[in-house]
C-alpha cells in the first residue's frame, strides 16, 4: 500500500515551485537547502514520478509536477485557512459557552457575576443551567461546571480549579439549646437532632477540621434531611435541630437572636466552590476568561464574617 502524501512535504514542494528554486524555498521555510532537496527527492520516490526537472542552471515542472501543484495548492490553502479559523475560535471570546451552576447558592453568589460577564462580551452565547449534579453535569456537553463541595474533593478525570472558600458554622434555635443544652464535643451530635442533606454534598456526614488540617467525620443523628441550604436554615430557625450553615447566610439570624452560634475547637469544614472542566491544555479562551472573572469577583467579595 502506497503511503499517504504528507502535508508538510507538499508545503515544501509548493514553496519550491513558487520560489522557482530550492534556495528560495529554504529561505521562506527557514530550513536548510539540503533538507528542501531531500524532501523533494523523497516525494518523487514515494510517487515514483519526476516532479521537477532540474540542472545546475534552471528547474522546470514536469507534467506530473504541474498536476500535483494545481491540485495541492488549493487544498493546502483551505487547510491553512481552517487552522487559522480554529485558532481564532479558540482565542476569541465569542460563540456558545455552556455552563452549570449549583441551583441554590449559584444564583445568589454567581448570578450577577455571570450577567456582568455576558454584558462585557456580547458576542458570547451563554447558556446557564442550575442543578446539583456536579461532575455528572460535564457529561451533558457543557463547557464548565461550578460545584460546591465540603471536605475532600473526589478524584476524577476533570480539572478542578478552586474559586472560593465559604466559612460555615453550627447553629441552633434557642428552643433547641433550652431542650438539649450547648454541646461541648462534636461527637455529641451523634445523639442530638441534626438537620442534614438528602443528596446535596453527596449526603455526606458532618465534617470538621482537625489540627492537621485534615477532616474528621461525624455520623450525626440526621432525623430531618433537606436538599437546600435555605430549607436547612428555616428548619434551624423553627427549632427542628442543629445545623451546619454558611456563616454569611445565617448571620442575620444570629444577629437577631433567632439562631445561636455554637463554636468548637474543631470548626466545621467550610464549603468550597470549584470550577470543573475537562482539559487544561485545550481550555478555550472564553471558558478561561469566565473562570478568571468569577474568581476575581468572588475574591473581592468577603464571605467571611
Automatic annotation (TrEMBL):
PROSITE patterns, sorted: HTH_LYSR
Residue ranges of the TM segments: none
Superkingdom to which the source organism belongs: Bacteria
Residues annotated as domain HTH lysR-type: 5-62
InterPro entries, per database record: LysR-type_TF_proteobact-type (IPR058163), LysR_HTH_N (IPR000847), LysR_subst-bd (IPR005119), WH-like_DNA-bd_sf (IPR036388), WH_DNA-bd_sf (IPR036390)
CDD domains per UniProt: PBP2_CrgA_like (cd08422)
Keywords: DNA-binding, Transcription, Transcription regulation
Family listed: Belongs to the LysR transcriptional regulatory family.
Name of this chain's protein: LysR family transcriptional regulator
Organism from which the protein derives: Yersinia intermedia
